[in-house]
Amino acid sequence: MEPDWRELVAGHMPPWVHRFVKQAGRTINRFSMIASGDRVLLGISGGKDSLALALALSVRRKWLPVTYELEALHINWREYPLDREQIRGLTQYFSALEIPFTSVDAAMRPDSFNGIFNCYLCSRNRRRILFSHAAKRDISLIAMGHHLDDLVETSLINLCFRASFSTMLPVQEFFSGKLHVIRPLSEVREHTLSRLAETFRLPVAKAVCPYDQTNIRSQLKPIVRELSRIDKLTREHIFSAHQFSCRIPQRESGYDGSFPEQHPQEKG
Predict the structure, then answer these.
(1) Model confidence pLDDT, tens digit, residues 31-46
(2) Any idea which architecture 5-241 has in CATH?
(3) Least buried of 45, 68, 138, 177, by fewest C-beta within 10 Å?
């Protein structure tokens, strides 16, 4: 029989999957992302990245004498909805991981956009929904599935087209520390996540993105691959050049669900 994600949930993991989970754990520890007693909301797109993130956090929770709660929120875009079977597959997956799973319907292009649509607005809209749900659930940590390649590509987008050497942060503070977005896969390469999804047939069910093959990010991917042929650690070098702070973030309570007017470091 072909390998299946249920084997991973049961604890039957090859060494390379162990290394993946440990790598995510090292990033969590390095940046003090999750502490005992924390409640974490997972932003789930249905793609390989967010499903791999959920697996890593669930497995890690079993390995460590640290207790933290996980919840998952999937946004089902009305313009490109998942079918019933896809939602069922995601529900079964998160049930096996012992992570409460919620799927909410929302408009990808709300009337407030006034007919304008781009990657920035889509990302902002998704984050607004996640922030609102977190506020209702009194959760101050949101985990996203952004990986090393995402951070590298964002670095190049900002450097080449915005004259700024910046990227998405492993731990990103909002509202004076009342809410934090964390990225436990910040040091994991995308090919590891692709291998995981393909080898163990994760129930990937990602909505259609109208700009998936034409946006700047997709055009930069082959450039990053070419740079990595010159130096295989190109991605890691760009990540390290940011000199991210490993200081434990000051966490406050009382996030009220309001949403920032602007945020320049987007994945889109």
Answers:
(1) 999 999 999 999 999 9
(2) 3-Layer(aba) Sandwich (3.40)
(3) 138
Q: How many CB atoms lie within 10 A of CB 188?
A: 26
| 48-63 vs 15-30: helix crossing angle, rounded to 10 | 80
